Amino acid sequence: MVTIGIDIGGTNLVAGVVSANHQLLAKAKCKAAECPTAEAMVSRLVDLSQEAVRLAGLSLTDVRAVGVGIPGAVDRFHGVVIESVNTPFHQTSFVELFRQKWDIPVYLENDANCAVLGEGLAGGAKNASSVVAVTLGTGVGGGYLREGALELYIRNGMEIGHTVIETDGIPCPCGRRGCWEQYSSATALKRMTREEMARTPDSIMWKMCGSLGGVKGRTAFDAARQGDSAGKRVTQRYLKYLAIGISNLVNIFQPEVVCIGGGVSNEKDEDFLYPLQEMVEKHSLHKRLGNKTRLVKAELGGDAGIIGAAALYQEFIDR
Amino acid sequence: MVTIGIDIGGTNLVAGVVSANHQLLAKAKCKAAECPTAEAMVSRLVDLSQEAVRLAGLSLTDVRAVGVGIPGAVDRFHGVVIESVNTPFHQTSFVELFRQKWDIPVYLENDANCAVLGEGLAGGAKNASSVVAVTLGTGVGGGYLREGALELYIRNGMEIGHTVIETDGIPCPCGRRGCWEQYSSATALKRMTREEMARTPDSIMWKMCGSLGGVKGRTAFDAARQGDSAGKRVTQRYLKYLAIGISNLVNIFQPEVVCIGGGVSNEKDEDFLYPLQEMVEKHSLHKRLGNKTRLVKAELGGDAGIIGAAALYQEFIDR
Fold first, then answer.
1. Which of B113, B237, B248, B292 best probes binding to A when mutated, by most A CB atoms within 10 angstroms?
2. Is B91 left (phi over 0), alpha (psi -120 to 50) or beta?
3. How is chain B split into domains, by residue range?
4. For A158, which of B83, B247, B252 is closest by C-beta distance?
């Protein structure tokens, strides 16, 4: 038996077929923009799911359940999307709509939680007894796993990106000031890079990007590797803030593993993971008790959410 | 049947007899300084426990178990105190020592966790499905309860006091800078009060305290109530930082209740709890989803640790 994992993003909709041992067998996708209404999107997701099953060379009777990762808040027990800013879903009885087209068990979860679950089951945090996952993207998302299962009582995703690490710092759209994601998201890294370029007209980053508009998450890391001092200032500042936020989580949860995902985490270990590990260890209170937290990188990339969503049915069976 | 709860403080040792419904029936105490060695202290704790049983008009056969709150890190499964700065215990087989004098089930736990458990079972957070407890004392301590039980996997207490809320802020003995407890502990409140007095020679706080050495946690609150602007600046600043740290926890855990203890929390609700509630609500992401976190005050004071310690046996039976 296989399961389907669906990842609903602001840009793409993806459905994947996943084996019982968390291997992605096939996937089908389309643009989210093609589905302007909730009904149209659910209908399309059913089609994508069934297409992926065919691509995997299987039949619909091989499918045990469907799991869906939603960028927003869900009522997982009633299968309702409560609120989801970048999708047509709002107070939507998602599971009911889905099952009108395909009558199969369907489970909903916040998409960040799905990605965490995927990494914990089959990725960078596999086999760890406790995991804090941190995803560095447009914002900073996170989740908490224990014994390979989501701590579901932390509802709607842990909003770790919206913890203040700089009192009276940069305003955040959430209404607070100095939220961690204003310093450690990929968006923040790009902003810091642009700010540093504006201060440093002779930085090689200007050559690399052409203009401020060409700045990417990796720009400062690439420049730093070439010896550019402006690039180094950006990466050092970025890693410092990232270490502060991660250390805060380590001091709260004392997890066995912190699993870091998002494009930034793909930087070379000597430029990203190793310096980060060193800083976090210095800030962690529990290392002296032998509870040293390991920092690892997420391994599944965009597939983590699909693999995690496909495993949601376990969450409800095992508990 | 009753249980014994022991609270080991830097100053006092207290043993209390607690009923099955978490009522404190009697207690006995002495000064910690009377017991210079681990053996002497354990021996004294056995005596205090048995004295408390007699004071309650009961006999030793009425006692089901003993629970002990230790200011430090414990290995609760082996009954060992790993590290405890202000006691004679270090790598001490506490339970073994205790049972050599009184052969009864003995459970160890971090003292902050015991206080959290006490408040969750019988105090301000009674009946809440999830509780983050925050204690404002020399430092800022905390814990997390779900369904009235400690989340024991968060080992050695949640070090919420050592989460950075002000990057490059005030140095903390833990080695970090800008830790929350440098802004929100009772110690921090007194420091802020002294700083403000030094800046404001005409503050009525000088009259109230005589000198900087006379500053208490309540000084600024008392002065603010009398219209003193320096006192108001201190309390506003203190509450602002406190709200930031509490909001960080609310955004991470989304608990039903945050339970605030320590002397400062005894300030009048209109000067402390109500403004704090308002600020935290503003900073909380989940209120719009109907997950509004309630702020309550701890109710048991110094007895929370005893009542929680006395309930530790449940933690091991129920799980």
1. B248
2. left
3. 2-117+303-317, 127-297
4. B252
Residue keyed to tokens 């997982």:
A76
Quick check: A65 and A92 in contact, CB under 8 A?
no
CA pair distance A298, B48, nearest whole angstrom:
53
CATH class of the domain at B127-297: alpha beta
Task: Determine the distance in angstroms separating the CA of B139 from the nearest CA of chain A, rounded to an integer.
Answer: 14
Q: Are the Cβ atoms of B166 and A162 closer than 8 angstroms? A: no
Helices marked H in chain B:
38-55, 94-101, 111-122, 181-184, 186-199, 204-209, 219-225, 229-253, 273-283, 303-310, 312-317
Residues A81-130 pLDDT 10s: 988 878 999 999 999 999 999 999 999 998 888 998 999 999 999 989 89
pTM of the model: 0.89
Binary contact (B153, A163; C-beta < 8 A): no
Query: Which CATH superfamily is A2-117+303-317 part of?
Result: ATPase, nucleotide binding domain (3.30.420.40)
Q: Over its length of 319 residues, how does chain A's per-residue pLDDT go in tens digits?
A: 999 999 998 889 999 999 999 999 999 999 999 999 999 999 999 999 999 999 999 999 999 999 999 988 888 889 999 888 789 999 999 999 999 999 999 999 988 889 989 999 999 999 898 999 998 988 898 888 888 777 765 556 688 999 999 999 999 988 999 999 999 999 999 999 999 999 999 999 999 999 999 999 999 999 999 999 999 999 999 999 999 999 999 999 989 999 999 889 999 999 999 999 999 999 988 766 667 899 999 999 889 999 999 999 987 665 4
The answer to whether domain B2-117+303-317 and domain B127-297 are alike in fold is: yes
